[in-house]
């Protein structure tokens, strides 16, 4: 299965990398271009998450954790997300090598955890639906991409609007998403709905969601700081 998946991961990685390059050629400033191109990718990833939720909605009682067949279309969606992670790593490596711009540590951690999680889910053919549903959280980077576009175009009103929505999405979209998934995981464990061969994964997945909650708290503080700076400029 990995032999089949690897070309797809590379293909989608090339597609996302092309987006990075095209946006950079237009914007010229690497951090701003990366913010915008990641926003473009986040539109795709959010859509992937929604599709996965609709496809696997009947599996909510197992917290969307179930074994996949090789023919499961969700595996194809997973290669899209892994291609995204690959392209971002390559783009950050190029930025470091060519422009001496260090990658954001939080983004490296976020993507590293994502790549490892997807790799495990793909290898075991288990838990891919949950991993994909997590991509619904990428709605927030969509707004971050719009913020970058607004700054590039000098659209102050759109920039302020996006800053407000970034915080709202972190608090009222991503926070509840993590909490709901945590609740489903605990419910599944308590009702012995977690498949025994994969029970150890419960103790890996649950702390991971609490880590994501903590990471979002870090991003909320960053957004509040950015909003404060905008207020001082006004």
Structure, explained:
This protein is an all-alpha fold and 234 residues long. The chain has one domain. It is built from eight helices and no strands. α3 runs antiparallel to α4. The longest helix is centred in the C-terminal third of the chain and has 35 residues. It is globular and about 55 Å long. The termini are far apart.
Helix content bin: over 70%
β-strand percent reads: under 5%
Largest sheet: none
Mean pLDDT over the residues: 91
Question: How many discrete domains?
Answer: 1
Task: Give the uncertain stretches in residue-range form.
Answer: none
SSE order: HHHHHHHH
* Radius of gyration over C-alpha positions, nearest whole angstrom: 18 Å
SS-based structural class? mainly alpha
Please state the overall shape, judged from the principal axes of the Cα atoms: globular
Number of strands: 0
Distance between the termini: 55 Å
> Number of DSSP helices?
8
Furnish the topology, listing elements before pairings.
Elements: H1 2-27, H2 30-56, H3 74-99, H4 105-124, H5 128-133, H6 139-153, H7 156-190, H8 199-233
Helix pairs in contact: 1-2, 1-3, 2-3, 2-6, 3-4, 6-7, 7-8
What labels would you give this structure?
234 residues, mainly alpha, 81% helix, globular
Summarize the structure.
By secondary structure, the protein is mainly α. The chain has one domain (2-233). Helix content is 81%, strand content 0%.
């Amino acid at each position: 299965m990995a032999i089949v998946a690897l070309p797809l991961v590379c293909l989608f990685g090339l597609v996302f990398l092309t987006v990075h390059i095209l946006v950079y050629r237009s914007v010229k400033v690497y951090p701003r271009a990366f913010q915008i191109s990641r926003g473009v990718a986040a539109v795709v990833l959010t859509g992937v998450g929604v599709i996965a939720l609709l496809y696997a909605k009947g599996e909510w009682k197992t917290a969307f954790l179930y074994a996949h067949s090789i023919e499961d279309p969700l595996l194809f969606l997973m290669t899209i997300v892994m291609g995204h992670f690959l392209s971002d790593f390559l783009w950050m490596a190029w930025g470091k090598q060519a422009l001496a711009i260090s990658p954001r540590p939080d983004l490296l951690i976020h993507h590293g955890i994502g790549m490892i999680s997807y790799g495990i889910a793909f290898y075991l053919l288990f838990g891919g639906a949950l991993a994909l549903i997590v991509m619904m959280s990428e709605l927030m980077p969509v707004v971050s991409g719009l913020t970058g576009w607004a700054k590039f175009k000098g659209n102050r009103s759109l920039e302020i609007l996006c800053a407000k929505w970034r915080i709202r999405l972190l608090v009222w979209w991503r926070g509840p998403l993590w909490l709901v998934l945590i609740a489903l995981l605990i419910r599944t464990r308590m009702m012995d709905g977690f498949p025994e061969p994969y029970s150890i994964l419960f103790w890996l997945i649950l702390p991971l969601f609490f880590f994501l909650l903590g990471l979002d708290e870090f991003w909320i503080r960053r957004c509040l700081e950015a909003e404060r700076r905008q207020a001082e400029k006004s």
